[in-house]
Design a protein that fits this description.
The protein contains seven helices and ten strands. By secondary structure, it is of the alpha/beta class. Helix 1 crosses helix 2.
C-alpha cells in the first residue's frame, strides 16, 4: 500500500505531548511541518504494529541526528531510544549529526546517542525490541546489508522486529559506503534480489509493509523482519 498524503499521517498518529526540541537539526526531518519525512517516519511506526506503544525500546541504526526520537516524543510518553551512527564517517549524518542530536536531546533521559561498534551498540542490541534502519540499506552493498542484519538478529530471535526501508527499482546505483569497511565504490545492483536474499539467508519472516513515494521521485519500500 502506497502512502503519500498528509491526511493519512493525521489519521494514523496525532501529537499528544511536547516534543523534545522545537528546534531540531534540519527542522524538516522528523517534524510534521515537512509532510514527506513525517509520512516516512509514521510509516515506520505503523510497521511496528504491536511493538509500537508506551514502554517501547527502540534502536535507530544510522539515526542521523536522532530525528525519530523527536517525532516519537510527541506521541509517546514512556520510551527508550538509542540512536547510533558510524564514528569517523565523512557522510554528513555522522559525527556532526550526533553532536547536534546531543545538543537537542541531551537533557532527556529517554534518549541516548552514540556510535556503532561500541559498548552503547552492545547495550542497544541487548535491550531493544525494535530496530529502525531508515534507508540505510539504500547505501550499502548486499554483503554489508547482511553483515548489519547478522549483528541485529538477536533482537529478532527474542521476538523483536527489524524495520527497514530501501529505494526500490529494477536497478539502483549505489554510490559511496556509509556503514561498511570500504572507503568508496560505485555499483549498480537489483534491489529486489537483495530483498529476496534476506529471508532465505537468515530464515526469517520478511514482510513488505508499505511503500512511500518521496517528494524527490523515488519510492521507499518499508519492510519488517520477524522470527519465522
Amino acid at each position: 500500500m502506497k502512502h503519500n498524503s498528509i491526511e493519512w499521517l493525521a489519521n494514523w498518529s496525532s501529537e499528544k505531548y511536547q516534543p523534545i526540541s522545537e528546534n531540531w537539526f534540519s527542522v524538516g526531518h522528523g517534524t510534521d511541518e515537512e509532510p514527506a519525512q513525517s509520512l516516512l517516519l509514521s510509516a515506520f511506526s505503523a510497521a511496528m504494529k504491536e511493538k509500537y506503544g508506551e514502554g517501547m525500546k527502540i534502536l535507530d541504526y544510522g539515526c542521523g541526528s536522532g530525528r525519530y526520537a523527536n517525532f516519537l516524543s510527541k506521541r509517546i510518553e514512556n520510551f527508550q531510544y538509542i540512536g547510533l551512527e558510524k564514528q569517523g564517517s565523512e557522510h554528513f549524518w555522522g559525527e556532526a549529526s550526533i553532536r547536534d542530536g546531543l545538543i537537542n536531546a541531551g537533557h532527556d533521559d529517554r534518549v541516548r546517542l552514540g556510535f556503532t561498534e561500541s559498548l552503547l551498540e552492545k547495550k542497544a542490541i541487548e535491550e531493544s525490541n525494535v530496530v529502525l534502519l531508515l534507508s540505510i540499506f539504500t547505501h550499502t552493498t548486499i554483503e554489508e546489508t547482511h553483515r548489519i542484519i547478522s549483528k541485529l538478529l538477536p533482537i529478532v530471535d527474542r521476538g523483536g522486529k527489524i524495520i527497514f526501508s530501501m529505494i526500490m527499482g529494477d536497478s539502483y546505483q549505489l554510490q559511496g559506503n556509509l556503514y561498511g569497511f570500504q572507503d568508496s565504490y560505485l555499483v549498480t545492483y537489483n534491489t529486489n534480489e537483495q530483498i529476496n536474499e534476506i529471508a532465505e539467508k537468515f530464515n526469517v519472516k520478511l514482510t513488505h509493509e508499505r511503500d512511500f513515494e518521496a517528494n524527490w521521485g523515488y519510492v521507499h519500500s518499508v519492510f519488517s523482519i520477524e522470527k519465522n
